[in-house]
Amino acid sequence: YGTIGIIGAMAEEIELLHQHVQVSSETAGAGITYYEGTLHGKPVIFCKSGVGKVNAAVCTQLLIHLGADCVLFTGVAGALDPTLNIGDIVVSSTCMQHDMDVTPLGYKRGVIPYQERSEFAADPKLVELAVQAGDKHFAGRTLVGKVLSGDQFIASREIVHDLYESMNGACAEMEGAAVAQVCDMNNTPFVVIRSMSDKADGSAHINFAEFTIQAANHSYTMIEEMVKNM
Ligand code: ADE
């Protein structure tokens, strides 16, 4: 896999990477700091993207430009699949933007006009490595499913139902499809790994802060196990 690019959505995750990666150099770009070093002897480059698709896209492009040969993205998401519980993990089969809407011109929801692809498939080997890591370390479920991204924090049962029924999303978050599209444009393999922090139904504020620390620990454990096996 060459140099492994790792993007965390949260400061807590980056903090754990800092504790474990032997950092050899730092580069700044577009207000983001990229740290290069080794984790379990493997070359890695990691950074914090910030929230939303624009931050994620810029961050991914720079990460690839600085030498990442693949991209692992971790963070939290709201569950859409009603069988998912808080703490479960979704590994991306594909990623799509749920807020890309050119339906007035006859395009299906999520379809990017004049673009060859709008649903971006994760690398099957990275998906397998993520599932193995999840199954090895967590009692909860590790589901492979479609990750839907949009610049909205979903907090309504109706929207959850709609995104699940009409777009078949396993979870909703705010960066994955942007990372996926940039990776696709650069022929770079990727996978998105998300811990469920809430059920996207408006009760997120109750679990969100508390769950962040646990989720960051989960994500780091997954990344570490994957990197060992890459
Ligand atoms: N990340 C975590 N929970 C989320 C939600 N409900 N909607 C969008 N992004 C999220």
UniProtKB/TrEMBL annotation:
GO terms for biological process: L-methionine salvage from methylthioadenosine; L-methionine salvage from S-adenosylmethionine; nucleoside catabolic process. Signal peptide: none annotated. It comes from the Bacteria. One of its GO terms (molecular function) is methylthioadenosine nucleosidase activity. Its EC number is 3.2.2.9. GO terms for cellular component: cytosol. CDD domains: MTAN. Pathway: Amino-acid biosynthesis; L-methionine biosynthesis via salvage pathway; S-methyl-5-thio-alpha-D-ribose 1-phosphate from S-methyl-5'-thioadenosine (hydrolase route): step 1/2. Keywords: Amino-acid biosynthesis, Glycosidase, Hydrolase, Methionine biosynthesis. This is adenosylhomocysteine nucleosidase. It comes from Paenibacillus protaetiae.
